[in-house]
Structure formats: C-alpha cells, structure tokens
Amino acid sequence: METFDLAALGNWLYSWVQPSGAIHGFHNHSVWGDNPLRWPDYTSGHSTFAAPILPGLAQVLSRRYDARGQELLERMMRYQAHAMRDDGEYLHIGFQAGELAKVGLIHNMVPALSLLMAAGIGKEFLHKDVVEAARESALRVLTQGSLHYGGGRAGVEACCNQDYARIWAKLLLQKYFQDDRFEQQVQEDLDYMVDHFHISGVPDEECDGTKRALLGKDQLLLEPAEYYGLMIVPLCIGYELFGREKWLHAAVRLCNHVVRSSFLDEENCRRVHRAYYAKSDGSWGRLTQPMQIQGNGLTLYGISYCARLTGNREMEKFLAEMEQGIAHYQTKRGFLRAATGWDTEADVVPATAWQAHDFFYFAHRLEQIQEEFWDRFFAPVKECTILLSNTCLWMEDGQRWTIQDYFSRSVYQIYGRKDRERFGRDLSWTGEKNDVEPDYLWGEALPRMVLNDDCVTPLRPLPAHAVVYNFSRYRWVPHA
Questions:
Q1: Is-contact 108 143, C-beta < 8 A?
Q2: Which of 421, 432, 370, 377 is nearest to 399 (CA)?
C-alpha cells in the first residue's frame, strides 16, 4: 500500500516560498485548462489560491511543533494578511490569468478563510500580532472587498462555490473569534444556497449536485468536483454552530454526489469526476476527463469533515481509495501529477496553488506526523526534475524551471525562476531583446529529450542528479 509523503510535498512547496512570505508558482488551472501562458500574462508570482497551505502548516505545527515551521508560517501569514488593495480586496487574485485578472470573489475568500483557520488552529503558538493581523485582514475583505460581489450576500448573481466560500469565512470568525456579527446573514445565506443551487437526483436519489450559477451558460453546469469542499464545509460548520439538521442533510447529499460520481482511471486509481452538464432532454450528463489529480484537498477535507460528523462508512471508503490514488500519483520529489486528458501543459505542470490544498488535507488526515518531518521539510534538495508528458516536458533544477518541447519541436520554450514573478520565452534567435534574463536560461545544462517511435530517449547523457518521471504514454529509454 502506497503512503502519501506530506514532508516531501511540503519540501517542494517550500522551494517556491520567498523571503517575503509570498509563494510563487506556475499557475496551471488543470480543471479549466488555462494558465498565464495561455492568456498570455506570464505571471509566476504569488497567488492567493495557495493560501490553504497556511492552515495546513498550522495543523502540522499543532501536532508536531517546530520553531522553524512557526517562523515560516508567521512570515507567510503576515505577507498574505497585508497584501491588500485600497478597496479591501487582496492583491494577486488572478490565479490562472495572472495579474491580468483583477476580480474574483473566490480568490478573496480562500485567503480570508485560510488566514482565519490558521490563526484559530495556531492561537496557542502564534505571536498575538500575527493572529490579530489575520483576523483584521479577513474582516476587512468581508466588510469591504466582499461587498463588490452581490453586496456581500448570496443572491441570484452568485457563483455557487464562491458564495459558499464567503459563508465559510464568516462562520470561521464566529467559530474561532466568537465574533457573531454575521450570525443572521450566514443562516439566511446557507438557506438561500441550499434552496436555490442544490439539484437533487444527480447521480441518484440520495445525491445533490450544485448548479454553478443561476444565470447564463454556467446554469447548464454543475460545479466541478474539486469545488465541493467549499460547499460541504460551511454546511457542516453551520450545523455545528446552530444545530440545523437541514444543513447536515444537505452536506451528506453533496458528499454522496462526489463519492458516487467518482471513477476508476486507466491506472485503476479512484478519481473524482470533472462535472455534469445539462443535456437537451433535461437529464445531467457526467464528464470524467480531462480532470486534475492535484488540488482536490478541499473537497476531500469537506467529505472527511462530514464523515466525522455522521460516521458514514461509504465516505470513509471513498477517502481511503482517493488517498491511495493520490499517493500513487505523487513523485518522490513530493508534488503530484497535475492532470490527465488535456494533452497540453495542463497535464504536466505541478501548481503550488492547487497542491497547497492537498498539503492542507493530508496535514489534517494523516494519523501521525513523523518526528523527522520538519528536517525533511526544510532539507536542501539537489534534484534536476524532468517530467515527461504526451506533449511537452516540465523541468526544474534549483531556482530555474522550464517547459520544453521534445527535441526539434518549437511550441513551448518557456523559462522561469522560482524567485521571480515573471516567466518568458527565449527570443535570442529572433534578433529581438530577450524576454528573460540570462540567469533564466539553462544553456548546455538543459536536458533534451527525443521522441520517436513512441519512445523517449535523452539526446545526450543526463546529469547525475537528474530524475525522470514518466507521465506520458511513451516508453522511457534512459540510454539511447
């Protein structure tokens, strides 16, 4: 039985954390298939969607304290708490569209709820100013920035997962800080969401899916599976705080939707489905792929939360199977395979913003945190990582990363650095000023791979510290 290695994932995520407390990454949205390269925006700096790493770190520290871990968490919390715009919204809310996108309720609410949860979990060991900064930051976005979206309340223009995330953040203020200013709002909004967004009978009579929206084309789509944690958790917390059985019942039905819509993939691993779409005959059709493997942590956390409240064995069996599948797709470097079915870079590039969600889940789920966890978390790693996919390669070595083509092709040729907020192309052959600085480029150190006759071979011998992970349909032949 394969076991998930949380310290290894943490080590890889930590390699993207900056002295400021920001966490950079290539923001591969492997649910929708886009990223800053596709828009194009070329941003690889901080994303608020990585914020679940904060309560993940807090949870690990609460179970196995380490001063280095506390310093890291406080640095990251301070950065996230203070990286705000004058209008009360957070900076860096574009995720897959990079800095091009300046709006998004979900990318304001995920950092808000993450700060509140991290502060609540870590109250016993975090410095008081960090806890207060987290509370004040979340409160500001809820009372100011959040008003830009539906006036701060659930309504006909809501996006289901995003409005549920806002309710979650408001509930956490009451749960961890005994601040009940939103007590009436959250109860009214939970009722509104259940009554208007939940669709019964998908895929069976014991299940509810949720419409993504009530208006426009998104009313023809049920929320993708990885967003269901954003709906399930606030329903469960609402039940805990106010005792409303209706909300726990609704949470169970959402869990059933995810569990019973899941499937076994080509490697016999349990996977969550992609989404459901409205067919012309009035029924709902299931989509399975393309779909991400990374980033399902919030949904799994929600199902585990509901299973704890109900003792539901079907949910526990599903979680155990999902954990086995995730462990199967985890590399020794720590990150997970990104996705399957896209046949683009969306399948191969590991995204810190998604994999922070997986860190969060396993920080809560693992039975124990090993004594050597923090030493492994902070250990220097000297691996030149090479990922093979059907269409391109992802490579990283130290601070440098790159998306490359198989030899003699010229689709990608993307270069970035973990310590920079921008990535770009090598334009030297065009006669134009290069799009990246010289220290982005690998020169002769760049491993090159040849794809021919369904086999991948290195063009030249690989460096001794290179490790190849084959996520392609092709056979890897280490020696030409």
A1: no
A2: 421
CB 390 within 8 A of CB 474: yes
Q: Between β-strands 393-397 and 400-404, what pairing exists: parallel, antiparallel or unpaired?
A: antiparallel
Q: Are 83 and 63 in contact (CB under 8 A)?
A: no
Closest CA to 80 of 123, 140, 128, 34: 140
Is the omega angle on the peptide bond into residue 224 within 30 degrees of 0, that is, cis?
Answer: no
How far is the C-alpha of 320 from the C-alpha of 322, rounded, in Å? 5
Q: Are 12 and 368 in contact (CB under 8 A)?
A: no
Query: Measured between alpha carbons, how far is 257 from 255 in angstroms, rounded to an integer?
Result: 5
Tally of residues, the chain: 480
What is the reported pTM?
Answer: 0.98
SS3 285: strand
Going by C-alpha positions, the residue among 199, 103, 197 that lies closest to residue 155 is: 197
- Report helix angle 228-242 to 160-177, nearest 10: 40
Q: Which two tokens stand for residue 343?
A: 């046949």
β-bridge partners, 162:
none
Q: What are phi and psi of 166, to 5 degrees?
A: -65, -40
| Contact of 48 with 110, CB cutoff 8 Å | yes
In the numeric block, which tokens belong to residue 318? 């599903």
Placement of tokens 């549920």 in the chain: 164
Residue 391 contacts residue 343 (beta carbons within 8 Å): yes
Of 254, 260, 335, 253, nearest to 292 by C-alpha is 335
CA-closest candidate to residue 348, choices 473, 164, 186: 473
- Look up residue 230 and give its two tokens: 């954003």
pLDDT tens track of the chain, all 480 residues? Answer: 689 999 999 999 999 999 999 999 999 999 999 999 999 899 999 999 999 999 999 999 999 999 999 999 999 999 999 999 999 999 999 999 999 999 999 999 999 999 999 999 999 999 999 999 999 999 999 999 999 999 999 999 999 999 999 999 999 999 999 999 999 999 999 999 999 999 999 999 999 999 999 999 999 999 999 999 999 999 999 999 999 999 999 999 999 999 999 999 999 999 999 999 999 999 999 999 999 999 999 999 999 999 999 999 999 999 999 999 999 999 999 999 999 999 999 999 999 999 999 999 999 999 999 999 999 999 999 999 999 999 999 999 999 999 999 999 999 999 999 999 999 998 888 887 777 899 999 999 999 999 999 999 999 999 999 999 999 999 999 986
